[in-house]
Amino acid sequence: MKKDIMIITGGCSGLGLEIVKQAISKDIFVCNLARNKEKMEKLDKMFQENYKGFVGDITDSEFVRNAIGEISKLGNIVYLVNCAEKACFKAPTQYNCEDIELSLNGLKGMILCSTETLKVKNEENLKIINIMSSAALKGNKQEALYCATKWGERGYTESLKVAYKGTSVKVIGVYPGGMNTEFWNDNRDYVSEEKSNSFMNPKDVAMVIIDNITSYNTLTVADIIIERN
User: Which of 19, 226, 15, 16 lies closest to 134, judged by CA?
Assistant: First the structure.
């Protein structure tokens, strides 16, 4: 019997790692695509069974094509979770080309991974879960570039929904608020450690996501909005 496989991008830390852990606890085989070789090696040793890491850049089309091709030989790809992201938060006049390229990597990777997975699945029997942010639903001060990227990801997600309406390909948009993760370590001038400590626990957010994407056979939850109390 073929294994049910979840592909996840950015599953070495934060929310991505919590999703990896909870998926494995449900006996789903997880294939993790991420750039951090050191963290990936630790996860390989930690999980061993029901897990395989692929070290590379999800904005590299050759890496994505090769990785997903290899994954398709391991079992039945059921889920693709696009979770990887990078961001910077600045006043509108302070952004530069480097900031833009960095922020757009998540969108680029989302499109490349979705495209290649749809190809190997022959556009059938697949759940694509695009994890974005509440910033995809509204504008925020000092988040012009982040919001622009997330709104782009939301536009891509909504377009996929229309393209595959009535088929066995299901597309789910996930919009969580702020979580207490390593994400903020590179943005301490915007969100202090004290403030991020009051944010949501990524383990709780991952539980909500996994429960909604795995628990129902006769329906699909199209959007998941998770807000802080």
Answer: 226
